Amino acid sequence: MAALDQKSPNVLLQSLCCRITGKSEADVAHQFQYAVRVIGSNYAPTIERDEFLVSEKIKKELLKQRREADAALFSELHRKLQTQGVLKHRWSILYLLLSLCEDPRKPSSRVGSYGAVFAQALPCDAHSTPFYYARPQSLSLSYPERSVLAAHNASSMGTSGISSLGVYPVNGPGPSPQSLLTGSGAQPVTDPARGSRLAWALPISGSPSGAAPPTSRPPVGPASAPPARPLHRQRRDGDGSAEISEAALVRDILYVFQGIDGKFIKMCAPENCYKIDSKVPLCKSLRDTSSRLAELGWLHNKVRKYTDSRSLDRAFGLVGQSFCASLHQELKEYYRLLSVLHAQLQVEDDQGVNVGVDSNLTLRRLLVWTYDPKIRLKTLAALVDYCQGRKGGELASAVHAYGKTGDPHMRALVQHILGLVSHPILNFLYRWIYDGELEDTYHEFFVASDPTVKTDRLWHDKYSLRKSMIPSFITMDQARKVLLIGKSINFLHQVCHDRTPPGKILPASKSTDSPKDAAELFTDLEGAFQSKIDAAYFETSKYLLDVLNKNYQLLDHLQAMRRYLLLGQGDFIRHLMDLLKPELARAATTLYQHNLTGILETAVRATNAQFDSPEILKRLDVRLLEVSPGDTGWDVFSLDYHVDGPIATVFTRECMSHYLRVFNFLWRAKRMEYILTDIWKSQMCNAKLLKSMPELSGVLHQCHVLASEMVHFIHQMQYYITFEVLECSWDELWNKVQQAQDLDHIIAAHDVFLDTIISRCLLDSNSRSLLNQLRAVFDQIIEFQNAQDTLYRSALEELQLRVQYEDNKRQREQEGEWGVTAEQEAAENKRVQEFKDTIPKMCSQLRLLTHFYQGIVQEFLRLLMTSSDESLQFLSFRLDFNEHYKARDPRLRPSLGATRGRRSSNI
Q1: H helices present in 618-742, as ranges
Q2: Which of 21, 42, 45, 47 is CA-nearest to residue 32?
């Protein structure tokens, strides 16, 4: 041996055998022979030969190790390698690199222990499964073919896949497998404890140590199995009369387990099941047992068909691919069982009649050993049926629904699948709430984005919830918070232009490292998961509100809306109305906006408004509404407040249109109060002057009475609007804004504030008739002002003429002449008489105006009393506190039944 090259494969292989087994060179001769056979075999890896998938997995491994630069470098090198034709088997090289980069401290995903390969030639336990795998090769069709194939493999090399395992005995590829390992006899033995994770262990014969089989299944072995008669192959090719042996049925069943038609058991397409040909001579018990076993193949085909059709469908999304991966993992465990059964059957074929009958494969033993796999495949098949046509979060909800069962084994299986399925969703979620990034190519996540929405509508329209994609294990409140977190981050970056990294806004985050972490997190939805969502929600929302309040003065702008557009700044509004009175009395077509803007600036400088922030005052402006024929300046004038940037998210165009409507209503009501003040001033100033004209006492009394009614009406309306509507609503809004936890709370409170004002100021569609009556009252006040101005003007002219006549008469008398001539006296009397003749006309005009006004007020009161709003009903009581109008209109007197009904409803 010393003369051999120390670097030759044989020497290196023998050294490897000594290192693994811990024995000397003389003691590892049999293991060395076995290793040579293994190396000469063409074992195929258990993943699909897809170069792209392997390269992507390498990059993911690098990213998990926080080696982003290495991942980018690998991607560039791989791209260059693809453009060159130097290597023909790039996939194999990449797969080798992927295998070498695995952490040796972690359990292997392919072979549990290299020592186990030498101890037992069966696949050992695996804890992870690649997304793709090679399908086990089918078994040879007949016993002679299997014998030829075994002989061929004994002289050359094995085939690939599970068939390569099948041509060897159960404990290795050598002719005397057990003797190579233990030095004992040639009886094949296995240990049931070496089965797969799915409890699909196959106790072929008694344990070498004499240990009993697991108690979860009926013990099957030489100690418990009844003695069976030797199995003779009674049927040969061309012999149609002999009955089929049980061994032939077992061989067919193994084909069916893989979804392959056997010689006797074939798929019946019309009935969609495996059936034994009715012409085949077979007893009823074996036929029934075979049919029961063949169901396993049908279930396998159902699951396999789903995975084959969906695995390469990229539109199925990451969640769907994870679901397929979980199904592949379960099928892999199922194929491990088939490889064990295949190996046992190979032992029987290779050793022939020397095999003990107690270790033979029988249909009854297959029933026992496939009991658990059948239950699992049934669960998978039902899950596949239920998940048809679903993707993303909807698919995760379907899987989660199947976990609500009392069977602990089924629940564990579904929980394992749910962990794999929910892993991509959790990655989407963490990327969204910690970075504000939404990489949802296949629309699987429950947060949707509309790229066509502009920045000014980002908060309202760009992001929304896909309710169908919300997993059933995530509540609607949690989904709303998740939406708000990512939306807040994007709002800060794109609208507020805040460049603070997300890591400084939120505490350090931990992404999900494995599907197991995802499953554990989702099982504690009210604990760890809820705490993560709440922490991110509170921190992000608090930071956003701080930016809006400190950098963009959101609350200051809100108060400015109250002071200027809702007439809260009383001294400014009064002074502005005094300055605008000459301008607004003109026709609307003669107004110029720059003149009105100058008057506005004068009013600001002359009142307390000058102490407001320049940022607020520069946004205050004058706006002229659309002009209609006959409009005056009072009809088209309006104040405006310009909003842009982040505050436009709260004060949207719809909100500003509501503010404009409310301002016009309040401005007109304020004008009525201004007009009535002028009417009262005119009456007070002219009362003493017109005492010398007793014929006017009646008409002046009518003016005073009507003016008093109007003043009472307007004062009550102003009290209702100012205190009951504006102040109460504003107090509620301010309290809600101070307690708001996120921007949506502020927007919702502001919208409720505006809706309340619109409805209680009679500006909504339900109060249209009330608003029409109120506007008619305002029109009557303007007509009354015009009528009184005409009356006072003519009365003062007449008074001036009389005073002038008396002065001329007194002057002439002092000069010693006659005071008046007969002609002058006659002309004076005639003029006085003509004036007196106009007084009844003035009285009738006032009576008519009073009648119309009272009729409108009575109708307004009637509508108020029938309103469903209690505040409007109370307003009707204040307007008619002394039942003045109720005495005139019977409709204002509620019936006894209506009163009782109202009282009972209040109770």
Answers
A1: 633-636, 653-687, 697-719, 728-739
A2: 21
- Asked whether 468 and 479 are in contact (CB, 8 A), the reply is no
> Which amino acid is it at 342?
H
| Chain length of the chain | 907
User: Following DSSP, what letter does each residue of 804-871 receive, concatenated?
Assistant: HHHHHHHHHHHTTS-S--HHHHHHHHHHHHHHHHHHHHHHHHHHHHHHHHHHHHHHHHHHHHT-S-HH
Question: Looking at this protein, which amino acid is placed at residue 420?
Answer: L
Tokens in use for 772? Answer: 């029409």
Please report the beta strands in 589-669, taking only residues with DSSP state E, as ranges in sequence order: 620-624, 637-641
Please, which residues have CB within 8 angstroms of residue 643's CB and are 6 or more apart in sequence?
557, 619, 651, 656
Provide the 8-state DSSP code for 214. Answer: P
> In degrees, to the nearest 5, what angle opens at C-alpha 760 toward C-alphas 756 and 761?
115
Please give the structure tokens belonging to residue 888.
């005139």
Q: Which amino acid is at 541?
A: S
- Express each pLDDT in 111-122 by its tens digit: 333 333 333 333
In 3D, which of 553, 745, 734 has the Cα closest to residue 644?
Answer: 553
What are the C-alpha distances in Å from 454 to residues 310, 450, 743, 821? 37, 9, 19, 88
Q: Give Dmax over CA atoms of the chain in angstroms.
A: 172
Instruction: Tell me if residue 108 falls in helix, strand or coil.
Output: coil
DSSP codes, 487-529: HHHHHHHHTS-----HHHHSPPP----SHHHHHHHHHTIIIII
The residues, any chain, with a CB within 8 Å of residue 606's CB and separated by 6 or more, are 575
What are the beta bridge partners of residue 267?
A: 274
pTM (whole model) above 0.85:
no
Instruction: Residue 653: count other Cβ atoms within 10 Å of its Cβ.
Output: 11
Taking only the tens place, the pLDDT of each residue in 557-587 is: 999 999 999 999 999 999 999 999 999 999 9
Identify the band that residue 109 occupies on the pLDDT scale cut at 50, 70 and 90. very low
The closest of 572, 635, 625 to 599, measured between CA atoms, is: 572
pLDDT, tens digit (0-9, with 9 covering 90-100), for 878-887: 999 888 888 8
Tens of pLDDT, residue by residue over 593-633, are 999 999 999 999 999 999 999 999 999 999 999 999 989 99
